[in-house]
Amino acid sequence: MEVENIEVFVIKENEKIIFNGYAYTVHHILASCIRWKCSNKISKKCPGILVTFNDYKNPTIEVEHSHAGDENLETVEKAKFEMLKRVSTFSTSTPSQIFAEVINQVPEPALTSFENEETTKRIL
Ligand SMILES: [Zn+2]
Predict the structure, then answer these.
(1) Ligand 1 centroid to residue 100 C-alpha, Å
(2) How much distance in Å is there from the Cα of 39 to the middle of ligand 1?
(3) Residues 47, 62: contact at Cβ < 8 Å?
(4) Helix 95-103 × helix 73-89 angle, to 10°
(5) pLDDT tens per residue, the chain (124 residues)?
(6) Which of 37, 73, 100, 114 is a plausible cystine mate for 27, CB 3.0–4.6 Å?
């Protein structure tokens, strides 16, 4: 059996990932690894840098963040991901219906980390 790796959650290939409560956007794609910068680099002036292999394995913090992570981030992003998936699968549902369906399955503590309904529906 394979040893379980610590994995990052890939939101968009070669663009955005979540690891350990922080979101990262791609910084540099190198031959054997990818360097990611904190998604709060501008808003929080965060210097946080994460490095992973090209297959997103072995995530290593290279530069520490200047702020706390959000443990609900992954739940929230997964819910958004699920919404987007449903939009393309069930074309008969409206964004409002899909938002309501998915948000029902989001655990209570994560709801506070959710952007408001209007903001979220705009991405659908
Ligand atoms: Zn950061």
Answers:
(1) 30
(2) 7
(3) no
(4) 140
(5) 454 557 899 988 999 999 999 999 999 999 999 999 999 999 999 999 999 999 999 999 999 999 999 889 889 888 988 898 898 887 788 889 999 999 988 888 888 777 777 777 887 7
(6) 37
